[in-house]
């Protein structure tokens, strides 16, 4: 259940919603990062708390498919790497934003490792406060998004039952109008 603003104030918090952005781009100032920055600016103007994890700078290994999290681990992954930071933020997040350049019709490999590790975070049920999601994708050309969007639809909207708060795509260079669209989207979140 989402906490009301008055409940958050009682807890010493003054934000509307906690948003976790997973940045799957290795480029520090590329299109994906510019789009994230615009979305974040809008969200923060609406008093949302935004945490950004640059997954390409983290030591996060792929899922081992060992099933420890679904047996002895009771939802906890056997691997102890930088994914622990993501797990902690995910437990408190009310909205998740997946952001990535398109690599071979899908999200970046670094981000894919993080998403695969959600296997333990979604067991036995999804993170307790998580209700909404959005996806931000950049690519070198249009019509390159099908693989990433298929995964987003199946893994986040359908399986986790999250409300879609937007799909934002940019082929080529990011325009000022697209950045403004992202600012407005972040600012309009409720």
Overall description:
The protein is α/β, with parallel strands linked by helices and 190 residues long. The protein has helices at 5-10, 31-45, 83-92, 109-116, 118-121, 146-159, 176-187; strands at residues 18-23, 49-54, 95-101, 132-139, 163-171. The chain has a five-stranded parallel beta sheet with strand order 2-1-3-4-5, with helices on both faces. The longest helix is centred in the N-terminal third of the chain and has 15 residues, at 31-45. The radius of gyration is 16 Å and the shape is globular. The two termini are 14 Å apart.
How would you summarize this macromolecular structure in one to three sentences?
The protein contains seven helices and five strands; from the N terminus they run H-E-H-E-H-E-H-H-E-H-E-H. It is an alpha/beta fold and 190 residues long.
Summed over residues and divided by their number, the pLDDT gives a mean of 92
Question: How many H/I helices?
Answer: 7
Q: Biggest β-sheet: count, sense, barrel?
A: 5 strands, parallel
Distance between the termini: 14 Å
Structural class: alpha/beta
Q: Would you identify the regions where 5 or more consecutive residues have pLDDT less than 50?
A: 1-6
Q: Strand percentage, roughly?
A: 15-25%
Strand order of the largest sheet: 2-1-3-4-5
Sequence of secondary-structure elements: HEHEHEHHEHEH
- The protein's oligomeric status is single chain
Question: What is Rg?
Answer: 16 Å
User: What's the helical proportion of residues?
Assistant: 25-40%
Number of E-type strands:
5
Shape: globular
């Amino acid at each position: 259940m989402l906490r009301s603003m008055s409940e958050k104030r009682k807890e010493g918090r003054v934000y509307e919603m906690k948003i976790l952005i997973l940045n799957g781009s290795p480029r520090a100032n590329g299109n994906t990062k510019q789009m994230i920055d615009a979305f974040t600016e809008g969200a923060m103007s609406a008093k949302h708390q935004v945490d950004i994890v640059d997954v390409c700078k983290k030591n996060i290994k792929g899922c081992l498919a060992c099933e420890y999290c679904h047996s002895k681990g009771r939802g906890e992954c056997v691997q102890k790497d930088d994914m622990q930071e993501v797990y902690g933020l995910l437990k408190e997040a009310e909205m998740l934003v997946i952001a990535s350049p398109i690599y071979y019709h899908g999200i970046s490999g670094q981000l894919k490792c993080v998403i695969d590790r959600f296997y333990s975070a979604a067991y036995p049920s999804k993170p307790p406060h998580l209700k909404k999601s959005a996806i931000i994708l950049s690519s070198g050309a249009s019509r390159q998004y099908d693989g990433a969007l298929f995964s987003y639809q199946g893994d986040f909207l359908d399986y986790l039952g999250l409300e879609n708060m937007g799909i934002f795509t940019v082929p080529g260079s990011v325009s000022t109008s697209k950045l403004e669209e992202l600012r407005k989207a972040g600012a309009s979140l409720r």
